[in-house]
Amino acid sequence: MIELLWVGLSEMLIYPLWVLWAATAAHDTPPLDPNVHQSPIILVHGRACHQGIWKPLRNFLEKEGYQNIYSLNLDRRRLWISAKTLSEYEEQLDRFIKKVIAETGRKPILIGHSMGGLLSAGAAVRLPESIEAVITLAAPLEGTEMVPWLQRRGLRLNAIDRAMAPQSPAVIAAKNVQVPLYTMSAAVDWVVWNRSSAPTDVSIPWRGHKGITMAKSTFKQIHAWLQEIERGEDN
């Protein structure tokens, strides 16, 4: 009960304020260094969000020695949704993945939150030879029952929201990921109701759909997965 109350308070008050502040504080990614012998990391934000939410994770990973960490804004303006379909985001992400590979000569690891996780899984299906691994945070890889629930109550949803419904083409495609896939769920998620069925799934306690991107336990788990991916590369 206490966990539920804390998540509710943080999701409704603390994290919305953080997202607004981070939109103004988001820093640009430094130039990619082709001499770094690590897989580049691409951070993919979720619906109606921006690259600034990744600042705490970026800071953590940089302290752990990771370089060539890139985050992109899927929308032209932060917090302003410019795409009309999920395929527009898919095309943008695919172009960026190819750009990173051309500049570094290495396959990237994708880390995506919410819709960004679904996009990352989809990219791994479309470009299986170009992705090293995928890590998702609170992503609707099984879709979310929130979409049909809202539709049954007469709410008109746009194409991007409908793409996150169970059995949508994007969700069905994401089930065919052939690269290493690591998934993370929030203990209390009021957006993505369907938890990932991936065997690697880890639940982060005391965090909701947005707060999972800022938890120290999230960062430590991602770091552990990155180390596991690196060991796989060396074998």
Structural overview:
- The protein has 235 residues and is of the alpha/beta class.
- It has a single domain (2-16, 56-75, 84-226), classed as Alpha/Beta hydrolase fold, catalytic domain (Rossmann fold).
- The chain contains 8 helices and 6 strands.
- The chain has helices spanning 2-25, 55-63, 86-104, 115-126, 146-152, 159-162, 169-174, 216-234; strands at 41-44, 69-72, 109-113, 133-137, 181-186, 202-204.
- The chain has a 6-stranded parallel sheet, with helices on both faces.
- The chain starts with a helix and ends with a helix.
- The mean pLDDT is 86.
Quickly list its features.
Rossmann fold; globular; 235 residues; alpha/beta; 6 strands; 8 helices
* Helicity, as a percent range: 40-55%
User: For the largest beta sheet, what order do the strands appear in spatially?
Assistant: 2-1-3-4-5-6
Order of helices and strands: HEHEHEHEHHHEEH
Q: How many beta-strand elements?
A: 6
Shape field = globular
Radius of gyration: 17 Å
How would you summarize what this structure contains?
The protein has 235 residues and is of the alpha/beta class. Helices cover 43% and strands 11% of the residues.
Produce the secondary structure layout:
Layout: H1 2-25, E1 41-44, H2 55-63, E2 69-72, H3 86-104, E3 109-113, H4 115-126, E4 133-137, H5 146-152, H6 159-162, H7 169-174, E5 181-186, E6 202-204, H8 216-234
Parallel strand pairs: 1-2, 1-3, 3-4, 4-5, 5-6
Helix pairs in contact: 3-4
